[in-house]
Amino acid sequence: MSIDSQKIVLVDGARTPVGSFGGVFKDVPAHELGAQATTAALARAGVDGADVQEVVMGCIGQVGPDAYNARRVAVTAGLPKNVPAYTVNRLCGSGLQAIWSAAMEMRWNDLDLTLAGGDESMTRMPFYDFGARNGYKLGSRELVDGTVMMLTDPFGGIHMGVTAENVAAKYGVSRAEQDEFACESQRRAATDAAKAAFAEEITAVEVGGRKPFTVETDEHPKPATTLETLAGLRPAFAKDGTVTAGNASGINDGAAAVVLASERAVAERGLTGLVTLEAVTTGAMEPELMGYAPVLALKALFAKTGTTPGDIDVVECNEAFAAQAVAVIRDAGLDPEKVNPYGGAIALGHPVGATGAILSLRVAKELHRSDKELGIVTMCIGGGQALAALFRRI
């Protein structure tokens, strides 16, 4: 049977804890985080790295040696040198795009086993000196922050936070709504159920150096957050704006990897899969309204699959900003109780190249924990784009 007539199965996976900006992973390159997630994902799936036929990793900060990011992940994780690898960059959707790209390659090239995921070190993005190569003539120059560049829309020259302000203004999302959403994200992430869910996802990371230490939990959550503390924060991107550091996602470091298999490989190898990838859709609109594009991708997904919002049991959205998350949930007709049941990026962080893979793994495991059938991962993407993917529990 050709693989193009079979489902693509997400067998299992793993993620690292998510580190804060300049935090526990400040000295750990992205590919090393990716390698640790990869090693754990293969072990949990019961797959030998030598049997993997392609590695696809999402990463935005492909700077210097990390231009070879996916290959470095594979080699560092101990996969044989004859296992090929490539890196994809769809900004915040990169981790989900990696899964989709691997699935498409499995169908096109009749592959049985691939590994997909994402890794990011937003902390380790360099500062740029664009005039150094050809020399300066006269006057002062500045170093340009690579992390800020990553988060700046090149079409309008505005920070992603300003696009969230635009969404809030155009689609009527108040400061109070944003703060309430952010506070709920922090509350959900601090529950015992959330901690148990994260423990199933996370593989501990060993950080070397003169004083080695182990990271086992996410660094970013702020469980003491209240509506009062959020209300006291100043707008971060516009003088009279509504977007603050408290109702926006974090700038973070982390990685995740999942093993994908054909139905044929699952049967022949006796693997136990979590979910099948049913469909993926895209959306695109004006870059200055970036965070609203998931509405388009979700509507396309419902139309493509013949499903409705009421059919969906759990949704994970990347929650880049409360402003866009509130608008997307409302205008796509999603049930807020089913969206990010364990909190989202406002509480947990958003290591941009990895988040799509983290959320895909979370949906897969949550469908089994809750004995439900259908889950969605959706991502807003810089430049006015979005992805949405439908998964079905096995």
Question: How would you describe this structure to a colleague?
Answer:
Its EC number is 2.3.1.9. The protein has 394 residues and is an alpha+beta fold. The chain has helices spanning 30-45, 69-76, 94-109, 146-150, 160-171, 175-189, 192-201, 227-231, 263-269, 294-305, 322-331, 345-348, 355-369, and strands spanning 8-15, 19-20, 55-58, 85-88, 113-121, 127-128, 144-145, 152-153, 158-159, 205-207, 213-215, 252-262, 275-284, 314-317, 374-381, 385-393. Strand 15 (374-381) and strand 16 form a beta hairpin. The protein is globular and about 60 Å long.
Sequence-ordered SSE layout with sheet pairings:
Layout: E1 8-15, E2 19-20, H1 30-45, E3 55-58, H2 69-76, E4 85-88, H3 94-109, E5 113-121, E6 127-128, E7 144-145, H4 146-150, E8 152-153, E9 158-159, H5 160-171, H6 175-189, H7 192-201, E10 205-207, E11 213-215, H8 227-231, E12 252-262, H9 263-269, E13 275-284, H10 294-305, E14 314-317, H11 322-331, H12 345-348, H13 355-369, E15 374-381, E16 385-393
Parallel strand pairs: 3-4, 3-5, 14-15
Antiparallel strand pairs: 1-12, 1-13, 2-12, 5-12, 6-7, 8-9, 10-11, 13-16, 15-16
Helix pairs in contact: 1-2, 3-13, 5-11, 7-13
